[in-house]
Amino acid sequence: MTIADTGLAVTIERDFAIDPARMWELWTTPEHVAAWLRPSLDRYKPSTCEADVREGGAYRLLIPGVEEGDFVAYGRYLELDPPRRLRFTWGWEGDMPHVADTSEVDVEITATDGGCHLRLTHTRLWDEDQLASHSEGWRGTLDVLAHLYG
């Protein structure tokens, strides 16, 4: 079951000193995803990632908290256009069953003189609380990516 598009979305744009091919690897190789995809270096340990990186393939990401509980994100890859675009569904285990796996994340990577420009858009968020928490979470996650890789 899916939810209607609420119109709630977060878009974050950021430049990185990482070339597009390397950025693509960081988003699509489970070992790399596990190292950086977490909202904070202080509050979360490196993740565990299982992923079948192909259109229609599934992923599951266990994000262990230092003081908070663990979180598990999961979804399916909708579009892979290396090294330019990655689109996937996003859900949290334990969320309300009628909204799990219904939001979508679109990552666009564009080459720049110094590396790449990344535009992340997370759509179909179901309420203002989710909008705020995902906005904070993705900003923190991209901070971790920049800290670890440039």
What number of domains? 1
Mean pLDDT: 91
Q: Superfamily at the CATH H level? A: START domain
Q: Please tell me how large the radius of gyration is.
A: 15 Å
What is the N-to-C order of secondary-structure elements (H for helix, E for strand)?
EHHEEEEEEH
Termini separation: 39 Å
- The name of the CATH architecture is 2-Layer Sandwich
Overall spatial form: globular
β content, as a range?
35-45%
- Looking at the structure, the CATH topology is Alpha-D-Glucose-1,6-Bisphosphate, Chain A, domain 4
Low-confidence spans: pLDDT under 50, at least 5 residues? none
- The amount of helix comes to 25-40%
CATH class: Alpha Beta
- Please summarize the sheet with the most strands: 7 strands, antiparallel
| Secondary structure category | alpha+beta
Number of strands: 7
Q: What's the arrangement of strands in the largest beta sheet?
A: 1-7-6-5-4-3-2
